[in-house]
Amino acid sequence: MVNSIINIFKYPVAILSFLLFLELGTVFFKITYSMIEDFVVYQNFFIGMGAYFIIWFVLFRNRIGRLLLILEHEITHTIFALISFNKIIEIRAHMVGGYMRYMGTEGRRQGNWLIDVSPYFFSTLGVAVIGIIHISSPTYYPILMGILGYTLVHHVYNVIISFHPRQSDIVEVGLPFSFLFLPSANLAMIIIMLTQIPGDKIYLGTVIDYLYDSATYYGDFLLSLLK
Questions:
Q1: Is the distance from CB of 32 to CB of 194 less than 8 angstroms?
Q2: pLDDT tens digit at each of 227 positions of the chain
Q3: Where are the domains of the chain?
Q4: What is the pTM assigned to this prediction?
Q5: Which of 10, 88, 90, 176 has the largest CB neighbor count within 10 A?
Q6: What DSSP state is assigned to residue 118?
Q7: Is the separation of the CB atoms in 136 and 148 below 8 Å?
Q8: For 98-105, which contacts have Cβ atoms below 8 Å and span 24 or more sequence positions?
């Protein structure tokens, strides 16, 4: 039932995402410009971003690192399968790939598009760090700010290397949908991470209010086309 409801909204969500791309891009530009202006406040975040390239390419760009990426990929599939009330059967991750099977995946998949594309826009590590930030003491904010910067670059890099037209998940949902939905979905994910930097004055609520007004406008426009 939940899968069917989610699948009904597949292309309406994709089209709305496409229409919001410029709005999301504007928000992203304003946030990053503000961060660069207040570089001292965000220096740990930027250090964390830079540290990714050292830590990843020196320590983790090997078989173990690849296995960790694949495992994170499958865990993200699993999270979205669970929140859409699918029963998980099996999770496997190995050096040459991995998979997650849930009830209905024998033969053609019977789940929903959100499960398929989730690793290509959702930062599992980033959300985990955000959760830790919200339960942590301000004493640890400088360290957590750097870790959040690290996970942001990790997310972007992971999406870039994992997305390609012949990827089975992308084939399943279709290239037209992927190109309509994923750019905006990734911008939204990055904006969420940027608005969760501890100790600053950039709030997610303000961004949501702005985007809600834009989404309402475009939603009304799409409904008028259907009348």
A1: yes
A2: 788 899 999 999 999 899 889 999 999 999 999 999 999 989 999 999 999 988 887 777 777 778 888 889 999 999 999 999 888 888 887 766 778 888 755 544 568 999 999 999 999 999 999 999 999 999 999 999 999 999 999 999 999 988 988 888 999 999 999 999 999 999 999 999 999 988 777 778 888 888 888 778 777 777 777 66
A3: 2-58+121-226
A4: 0.88
A5: 10
A6: G
A7: no
A8: 98/70, 98/71, 98/73, 98/74, 99/74, 100/74, 104/3
> What one-letter code names the amino acid at 219?
G
Buried b (16+ CB within 10 A) or exposed e, 124-162: bbbbebbeebeeeeeeebeebbbbbbbbbbbbbebbeee
Distances (CA, A) of 200 to 39, 123, 188, 206, 211: 12, 21, 19, 13, 21
User: How many residues does the structure list for the chain?
Assistant: 227
Rounded Cα–Cα distance for residues 164 and 167 (Å): 5
Work out the number of other CB atoms within 10 angstroms of the CB of residue 84.
18
